Amino acid sequence: MTDPNTLSPPSLETHVAAHDDTFLDTNELVINMGPQHPATHGVLRVILRLDGEKVLGLECVIGYLHRGVEKIAENRTYTMFNPYVDRMDYVAAVSNGLGYCEAVEKLLSVEAPPRAQYVRVILTELNRITSHQLWLGTHALDIGAITPLFYTFRDREEVLKIFEKYCGARLTTHAFRIGGLQYETYNGFEQEVKNFLNFFRPKIDEYEELLTTNRIWVERTRKVGVISGEDCIALGVTGPVLRASGVKWDIRKAQPYANYKNFDFEIPTGQNGDTYDRYLVRMAEMRQSVRIIQQAVEGIPEGPIMAKVPKVMKPPVGEVYHSIEAPKGELGYFIVSDGSTQPYRVRVRPPSFVNLQALDMMCRGQLVADVIAVIGTLDIVLGEVDR
Amino acid sequence: MGQIIQYIQSYLRTKDLTPGAAGNVFWALVYIMLVFAGLSVAVIAMNWLERKILAHMQVRLGPMRVGPHGLLQPIADALKLLLKEDIIPAEADALVFWVAPFIVVLAAFTVFVVVPFGPTHAITDMNIGILFMLGVSSLSVLGIVTAGWASNSHYPLIGALRSSAQMVSYEVAMGLAVVSAILMTSLNAEGTGTLSMIGIVQAQQAQAEWFIFKFFPLGLVAFAIFAIAMVAETNRAPFDLPEAESELTAGFHTEYSGFRWSLFFLAEYSAMIAVSSIAVTLWLGGWLRPFPALHGPSITIAHVWPPADPTAPTGALDFVLALFPGLTFLFLAGMCFYSTVRMPKHPFFRIQTIGLAGFGAALALIGLILFWPPVRDRVGDIYWFSAKVAAFMYLYIWYRGTFPRYRFDQLMKVGWKILLPIGLGVLILTATVALLQTIWHL
User: Domain containing A352 — which CATH number?
Assistant: First the structure.
């Protein structure tokens, strides 16, 4: 029998493995999973090389959702490009907007006023909660537990209502502007956020009740898709996946942006780097988000919400890289300015795209069912992978 | 023609009309039709109930549009499936593809030949009833394997392989649990065991104890093994790997559509009812009512109680429990009327409101008929049997709403490394305890 760990990844040409005449030897089975498949979270296509149920290797084929977002940026002004970033990780649109706005602010050398910073933190952390809720629901659904999906969607709705009331949109919010915010918070915003926090705290326990100690859930996720901290760093994997492998790296703490340094929160980490740890880390992160929002909503100052930003933005010639901790990992924007109203080049470092690279390493030698679990636990959004 | 009429008349004229007695061709035919119709209705009801119960577990409403509270949804779905284009993939083996769903349906329905709904309510009574049941129900794996193979496609093939391995493995544990129950049938006054389904229930009656409580906790453990294995046997959550939607799209029936797909659906649900019937017959006393040994003080109510049959028990508890079938239907009717009152008053909902009230009235009428003494005394057996099977059906839905899905190797581990040794141990312990207590009186 061949050792699955020494095999190179399958290429598109090796669809049919060479027939082996030796008695009792099995042929490799090449299955195409996706792009139309219930568990690939959109249009990911995975070519699996199987020995029975065992995965010998896999190859991801991406690009089915490619819209050329980075190229579009070169033909739009800095302000006009702002709504486009929401369409990359449409599950965490607010985080995308925050990263882009802060990157351009860095380029312009302006800083958003304190009140805007606080509102940004509140909305971004609320968005982190919704992103993790969506991840939990779909991940559990992939593993066969259908009920958590409906619980998470029910509670996610409460956050989306706050978004809708604040900026009129639920998913692609376009909540922030370069230099601050366009809209002042509506009346009762703080109270509604507080109400949500009180509503949501027991709901996390409700999700955990269904899964955390569930024997089948633990068996399905423990020691599945294991990846070490070193491998994560080597592959550039970030976010909860990295933290579950024991590396305490969170950009909110490591390179504080917005005003995260004002808040008291912890970075939950795991030890084993398996799917169960990643689940626990994300659940703990939801609790930490609640903690951050609580502090932010209590300490929100009065004042202006928009910094002095020129109507026609012409950043000085130069380049900037700014990264934030999006729900899925490090989301970076590299913007090159040639001094005109349009960026010369915008390069996005999407967490999903980089994390997806680890799929092959995490799935080698596991079973087909684990591939589903690992795709779910990587928490990818194909809009962000393909851009 | 005349001969056939004479033949039927000879059965009608016989003094003791015991429906269900072996060899009674006329009643067998009647019961085949009754069981087939009842089963189809049960599958339709189960479809609706599963969607509604699952929906309410998941904070949603489920079907609400077709008919009041979606009551006509299964019928609409069945019509849609029948009218769909019949597709056989070009690369498929057409004949095998065509035959496979029929094998599955045949296996699922044939099982009901020996299911006893009452002491005299069965199509036939075989002296090897339980063996026949296990044997026929395991034939359905043949249909699933052929379906997966004939589709000539990767996902169905993997689904079929998983399915065959799973069903064959769990049958072993299932068989051991069944043997321990059969062992208990010999522990009554006559001291002879039986494989007949009716005989098994009568043994529980003679021993005045459901086998689930016999030699506590041995009967319970054997029952639990069977209850787990039967979920795996019917490919339902959390053992629904053959049709694991998130991995294999739809497993062995990925390539099937329309009428053929609905046959698989029908077979799955009737198989669920079939294995639940086995569990009910073996451990939960079949048609026996709860507390078969308790009767209470003997009471008499003019024209109502005691029943016409002089051999029937006359206790107060018997009377109260005999009213349960009617009360159940009246309760369902009450729920319908309550929902009717709560229906929106908008004219758009007028037809639905009338329909729901009519449905409630029909249920209430059935309930009242079930109070009429001649009917009341004849449906008790069927009622308790159906109620127990319905409890299992609810469990199936509950599992589906609660559990994630096992992985294939874990499923095999549970079957071979956990259920099989426990089943063996229970069998040995049951035999030992039976010898010590009942036979040697130690």
Answer: 1.10.645.10
Contact state of B246 with A368 under an 8 Å Cβ cutoff: no
Residue of chain B with shortest Cα separation from A36: B249
Q: Pick from A61, A83, A105: which residue ends a domain?
A: A61
For chain A, which residues score pLDDT lower than 70?
1-27
CA dist., res. B109 & res. B273, Å (int): 10
Residue A372, pLDDT score: 85
Rounded Cα–Cα distance for residues A158 and A156 (Å): 5
Whole-number pLDDT of residue B12? 60
Give the total number of structural domains in chain A. Answer: 2
A196 and A248 within one domain: yes
Would an 8 Å CB–CB cutoff place A29 in contact with chain B?
yes
Q: Which residues pair with A49 in a beta bridge?
A: A30, A57
- Contact of A368 with chain B, judged by CB distance below 8 Å, is answered with yes
pTM exceeds 0.90:
no
Nearest neighbour of A147 by CB, restricted to B240, B247, B401 = B401
Q: What is the DSSP letter of B118?
A: B
Give the ipTM: 0.78
Out of A106-120, A270-284, B16-30, B279-293, pick the least confident.
B16-30
DSSP helix/strand/coil, A55 = strand
In terms of residue numbers, what domain contains A126?
A: 69-386
> In angstroms, rounded to a whole number, what is the distance separating the alpha carbons of residues A384 and A386?
6
Q: Does A375 touch chain B (CB under 8 A)?
A: no
